[in-house]
Amino acid sequence: MLAPEVLVLGASGKVGSGIVAALLEAGSPVLAVGRDRRRLERLAEEHADEPGLVLLPGSVANDRQAARLAAQVAERPRPLRAVVDAVGGAHRSGRLLDGPVSSLRRMLDDDVLPHLAAARHLLPLLGRHGDAPGRYILIGGPQTECGWSGYGQASVTVAASRMLAKVLHEEAQPLGVRLQLLAIDSPVWTVDNAAHACTGWPSALAVGRNVVAMLASHAERGRCVVAFSPPHAAPPHRLLAGDIAPSLVAPPLSGDGRPA
């Protein structure tokens, strides 16, 4: 049987590409989903030596598109180990009071509802692998505990996504799926924002390695919201198993961190 794969939504985005890199680093096949074909192709070029990376153009912007994507995923030969939802919109600055109500409505449509559309159609595809539940991880940004000054609309939409994750966490349990949110309490460092990035901002790869740690661990299995952990941003000491078993394998590593 083929090794199970991890589906990454928003794979060609700034955070999604780091998650893809971390999963490949950990030895997991990856199904990379994104709306922009050219950005997906650039992602493939960055990992040209990785046979475990498969590209799938697609969107979860609404129910219809999410259903089409789920139908394509259901036809794939590999079983699905997990879904990582790294879909995110652009954070537009400004005060809530300075913009029309319709502006916030559009942000809710663009930044919150796609997470629900994705979960509605992809959760049923996640079965149990042995005794392990299916896994579904959402990526949550800052400003969920308190408002982010100057980014009022983003504060509302990200907080709404956090509550959505809490509700879906409960509703996914009868399906045999463990749904969790990885909470990142600061912006993510990227090449694009390096000029003004603050010390301590995690990189996209560090976020991805936290995702790998969540998939590989049985700790905090009952928690919906899991905080980003700097220790989990280090390269993995173990690889995600290449078969359906939930356990990890620990091959000997050479000096550069690759399997010996």
UniProtKB/TrEMBL annotation:
Which superkingdom, per the lineage? Bacteria
Cited Pfam families = adh_short
Q: Where are the transmembrane segments?
A: none
Gene3D superfamilies in the record: NAD(P)-binding Rossmann-like Domain (3.40.50.720)
Per the UniProt entry, the signal peptide is none
What SUPFAM superfamilies does this protein's entry cite? NAD(P)-binding Rossmann-fold domains
Task: Output the InterPro entries linked to this UniProt entry.
Answer: NAD(P)-bd_dom_sf, SDR_fam
CDD domains the record matches: SDR_c
Q: Which keywords has UniProt assigned to this entry?
A: Oxidoreductase
Q: Which family does it belong to?
A: Belongs to the short-chain dehydrogenases/reductases (SDR) family.
Q: Which PANTHER family match?
A: 5-KETO-D-GLUCONATE 5-REDUCTASE, BLR5618 PROTEIN
Q: What is this protein called?
A: SDR family NAD(P)-dependent oxidoreductase
Q: Write down the species.
A: Pseudoxanthomonas kaohsiungensis
